[in-house]
Design goal:
There is one protein chain. Helix content is 42%, strand content 7%. It is built from ten helices and eight strands. The strands form three sheets. The chain has a four-stranded antiparallel beta sheet with strand order 5-6-8-7. It has a two-stranded antiparallel sheet with strand order 1-2. A hairpin with a 2-residue loop joins strand 1 and strand 2.
Length: 321
């Protein structure tokens, strides 16, 4: 569109706006004439303005006489538009910017209004999501980087082929058969129902022995030594001797959890060291071993050295957590 066409379009819009204003003023004037009695219009005499000495060289504007009819009908003589100091090209650009802003507001208003009424965001995209979801990212196998031939060769040279395999299913007690049946009575368990621990001469029921050995491996990793035991499984005759020596503090023969291979007594260097005992208190339950409530401070007997294999004692119906 040429500049001349733009100016003509702007003039047509301005004329249409003026015509709309004049019609509105005429309608208002007719309503006022119906509501009021007719008043004889008076002529408003112009007041001459004396130019000041400082502005003697500038032309003086005077107010022309305007009748009441002219005010009502809107037929007012417009003063001559002053000449703008802004270049014509810049005025055209400014007018185009204003018209563009009005057009954008006119188009955007119904769009925003319709969005508010429907309660939907105009920016919502109904297209399906692409790419992996969170579950895919978590479960996706990680591809390990390739190892150089030099590293593989070095590992082969430094490790003997006879080295023991460290498979994930390696047992802390290779000679212990957890599936072996537990047969016998309290203090008289069958030999195949007992597994020897890392400490020579100490035995427990297979499942209890396996769990305690796993706890001992964690203990060794933390303190650099094996866990020390005073007692584990006791046969019936030994339980009679303990009862005769300790009296009230020993269980009656045939009722002790030691006779079922489900209890241990720790050495004093484990119970007397606050760091070690705190570690056992925090970690042993994860392996199924706990100090029962009756043996804790405030219980019927204070025996911090006495720990039991919880699942086995629960099986016997004797657990006091």
């Amino acid at each position: 569109m040429t500049r001349r066409a733009r100016r003509e379009a702007e003039e047509q819009q301005a004329q249409a706006l003026r015509a709309h204003v004049l019609r509105a003023q005429g309608a208002r004037a007719r309503r006022l004439q119906v509501q009021r009695p007719q008043v004889q219009p008076t002529q408003i005499q112009p007041t001459p303005v004396q130019p000041s000495p400082a502005r003697a060289s500038q032309p003086v504007a005077t107010r022309s006489a305007t009748s009441f009819d002219q005010v009502v009908t809107g037929a007012i003589t417009r003063p001559t538009r002053p000449t703008s100091s802004v270049p014509a090209g810049q005025r055209i650009v400014s007018r185009a910017a204003v018209i563009g802003t009005l057009a954008a507001a006119t188009i955007a208003a119904p769009f925003v209004q319709g969005t508010a009424e429907s309660g939907e965001s105009p920016f919502d995209v109904e297209a399906p999501h692409t790419g992996p979801n969170v579950l895919d990212l978590v479960t996706q196998p990680v591809e390990r980087p390739k190892t150089s031939a030099a590293v593989v060769r070095a590992e082969t040279i430094t490790r003997p082929e006879s080295a023991a395999s460290r498979s994930l299913d390696r047992s802390p007690l290779p000679d212990c058969d957890v599936s072996a049946p537990v047969e016998g009575t309290n203090g008289a368990l069958a030999d195949h129902s007992l597994c020897e621990l890392w400490q020579a001469g100490e035995y427990l029921r297979p499942d209890a022995a396996m769990s305690l050995s796993a706890l001992n491996e964690a203990f060794r990793a933390s303190f650099g030594r094996e866990m020390c035991l005073v007692a584990s499984y006791r046969d019936l005759s030994t339980q009679y001797e303990i009862k005769a020596a300790r009296g009230y503090f020993a269980a009656s023969p045939g009722t002790s959890m030691h006779g079922w291979g489900l209890a241990i007594d720790l050495c004093s260097k484990e119970t007397g060291d606050s760091e070690v005992f705190s570690w056992l208190w925090a970690n042993a339950p994860s392996y199924g071993w706990q100090n029962p409530s009756w043996a804790q401070l405030g219980g019927s007997k204070y025996e911090p050295w006495h720990w039991e294999f919880v699942s086995g004692v629960v099986e016997k119906g004797e657990w006091q957590g």
